[in-house]
Design goal:
This protein has about 270 residues and is mainly alpha-helical.
Length: about 270
Amino acid sequence: MRLFINKVVLILSTLAAILGLVFLFWILITFTIKGLSSINLYIFTHDLVDNGLRNLLIGQFVLAFIAVLIGVPIGMIAGIYLQEYSFGSKYADIIRNLSDVMMSAPSIVIGTFVYAIIVNPIGHMSGWAGAIALGIMMIPIVVRTTDDMLGLVPKELREAGVAIGAPKYKVIFDIILKAAKVGIMTGLLLAFARIVGETAPLLFTSGNSEFFTLDLNKEFPSLTVAIYNLATMPDKHLVDIAWAGAFILTFFVLIINLLGRYIVKEKK
């Protein structure tokens, strides 16, 4: 009976995996066919106001880069504290639980939160609000990654550093972080891949602009928001631009994920 149940579960699991892969390849093939047919040099050299994507691509990566500057330092400091300074206190468990809750929170909730504390008081959307929303999304991922990766470093390395008279911060930065750098870097890449493709929080925070701008105090161009808006347009040419943007973004996120897996594989 147990062998029969095991075979049934194995067959169902295999069918579920195949079904998931079918949908995944269906999506990728659709993006590739429709996206490649819409990509040309013109969209990389002109802004949205001229039916191009230049300002959107630059704006998206500016927002993501600022989000990295916000999320990575805060997340890594919090992760270092949890693993190296909390010593199993109940406050550390509370922080870990809150971090897990934030990781599972819908991105639109974070967007409405930033809207309430930044956009609504100042009276208009801005690039800063969008970057902060993405940074907040990145923090719990970086916290969990740093905490877990530092936890895998053998205690003997810490003891060896202390034994030679090195201060604790030196042991952390020169020994422990270096030992865990591959895992931490992989987690950072995956966190970046997540935020660079987010749309919902930017709808409430940064909005979108058809023109090229680097002024973060105003509405800021965003590729994901533009894709959302263009995909619903009645003009087929605008829909084709949305397909091109979706393909570029999907390809970029796929490359980042593959790079993260390659780093882990090389380390092993």
